[in-house]
Amino acid sequence: MELDARDDLKTIGRYEILETLGKGAMGIVYKARDPLLDRTVAVKTIVSPRGSGRRNRKAYLERFEREAKAAAKMQHPSIVTIFDVGSEEGQPFMVLEYLPGDSLADRLDKVRIPLGKGVQTAIDLAGALGFAHSERIVHRDVKPANVLNAGDNRWKLADFGIARMPDSDLTQVGIFMGTPGYAPPEAISQGRYTPQADVFAWGAVFYELLSGRIPYEGPDTRTTNGYVLKKTARSPREYDPSIPEVLAEVCMTALHPSIEVRYKDGHAARAALEEAWERCINEELVGPKAFSPRELPHDQAPKLMHGGGTGLTPQVAPIEATATTSRDDDPTRVMASRTPQELARLRGEENDPNLAIIEAAKQAASRNDESDIEAMAKAAAGLGGEAGSEVLVADAPKAGLWAAVVFAALVTGG
Questions:
Q1: Alpha-carbon span 377 to 352, nearest angstrom
Q2: Element (H, E) at 84
Q3: Can you give the pLDDT at residue 256?
Q4: DSSP string of 388-403, one letter each residue
Q5: 141, 159, 240, 265: which is the annotated catalytic residue?
Q6: What is the C-alpha end-to-end distance of the chain, expressed in Å?
Q7: pLDDT tens sequence across 87-118
Q8: Are 298 and 112 in contact (CB under 8 A)?
């Protein structure tokens, strides 16, 4: 028996159904209440493969239960938590944390994402995949629709419902279960899913975060898969030249058709992106516009969405920021606001008291003192007026680096 999305469905297991949230190819998602713990959850029923025979279906359900339980053990700030796994009249289901926000697909359909936000989102997702890969779990269907808004500019990777261990028996059956445009050549032609298949899909998500475009898109599944098999995607810089080349290179390496070139797992993809982002900041390949908090509707977004590197003013020597190790569960965010008058004084008056903020940024970054950096950043934010232009320093992966960015924003005009 397979469960249908019905208005009269009252319970699944012990969970009280409140409403139907959505129905997709892999199952139905309900908003539900857990009466035991008195909390709101999401319950997803899982559709088993059709036409695969009784033996394969039974193997699928048994494998799903074992591997879903393995996935439920993953605790990561950028992965939607799986609370429970069960079966209702032979139909498997999963119980997940409930996130009422939109998906990344919804957001990208409406707006272009500022560069700083997009890079941090990609770093978080790569970290989530790296964690899953270290647990020998492959997601198999990474895409914007499976990235959910967790609030405070945070996103979580969801839907491990078709996740597999890379050496799973069913992984080797050769069934294509990904999403066209996000599945790599080896998944399309051979049904082979490894951590590098997730990296390819991550690269496609990062591509859209950077450029607002999808790397491979056709009118139907067959055409889209054909594009992936026959050609390499165009660089995202062809759509938006303001994307730094080093970031485009990370994206295209992740999307490379050869697994010999592609990053081996999420950890490698994250490390490459963090290094590229560090270069963007240290070598002034991005300007303050890249850290704007403002998301722009597609019809209002300029062709050069992310601006470009502006460099520091000649009177001020560039600073060297010492990197520290980032933590997934402790993102650093600060909003620095400046009015045009304040910026003019910063650039033209040596005795202006705001220069203390610049000096604090330089010293804190050189010492890599997080407490000093935080105090400096809060002081900088407090000096802005209501009419000030805002520059968001969003989750820069290194503490010293975001101090440097605050410093650069102050002296270059934000």
A1: 18
A2: strand 82-88
A3: 96
A4: -EEEEEE--SSHHHHH
A5: 141
A6: 60
A7: 887 788 889 999 998 999 999 999 999 999 99
A8: yes
CA distance 251 to 277: 12
Q: Which helix (H) or strand (E) holds 152?
A: none
Nearest one of 157, 1, 165, 6 to 88, comparing CA atoms = 1
User: Which helix (H) or strand (E) segment is 212 a member of?
Assistant: none
- Mean local confidence (pLDDT), 11-26: 88
**Is 4 part of the annotated catalytic residue set?**
no
325-382, pLDDT tens digit by residue?
A: 333 433 322 323 333 343 333 334 334 444 444 455 555 555 555 555 555 454 444 4
Tell me if residue 158 falls in helix, strand or coil: coil
Whole-number pLDDT of residue 339: 38
Mean pLDDT of 20-46: 89
CA–CA separation, 293 and 116 (whole Å): 8
Element (H, E) at 45: strand 39-46
Q: Which secondary structure element, helix H or strand E, spans residue 59, and what is its range?
A: helix 54-72
Out of 86-90, 180-184, 314-318, 405-409, the most confident range is: 180-184
Those residues whose C-beta lies under 8 Å from the C-beta of residue 207, and which sit 6 or more positions away, are 213, 214, 215, 233, 236, 251, 255
202 CB neighbour count, 10 Å cutoff = 29
pLDDT for 368: 53
The conformation of residue 238, written as its DSSP 8-state character, comes to: G
Q: What are phi and psi of 347, to 5 degrees?
A: -85, -20
Q: Bigger pLDDT: 60 or 96?
A: 96
Is it the case that residue 403 has pLDDT exceeding 80? no
**Residues counted in the chain:** 414
Q: What secondary structure does DSSP assign to 320-356, as a single string?
A: -PPP----TT---EEEEEE-HHHHHHHHH-TT-TTHH
Closest CA to 185 of 171, 194, 197, 170: 197
Q: What are the Cα distances from residue 218, in Å, to 106, 175, 180, 186, 215?
A: 19, 21, 9, 19, 10
Residue with tokens 């597999």: 164
Task: For tokens 């319970």, name the residue.
Answer: 11
Would you say residue 65 has pLDDT above 90?
no
State the pLDDT at residue 95.
Answer: 93
With beta carbons less than 8 A apart as the criterion, state whether 26 and 161 touch: yes
Q: Count Cα atoms within 13 angstroms, Cβ side, for 228.
A: 29
Looking at residues 74-90, what average pLDDT do you find?
A: 89
Tokens 């298949």 belong to which residue?
197
Give strand pairing partners of 41.
32, 97
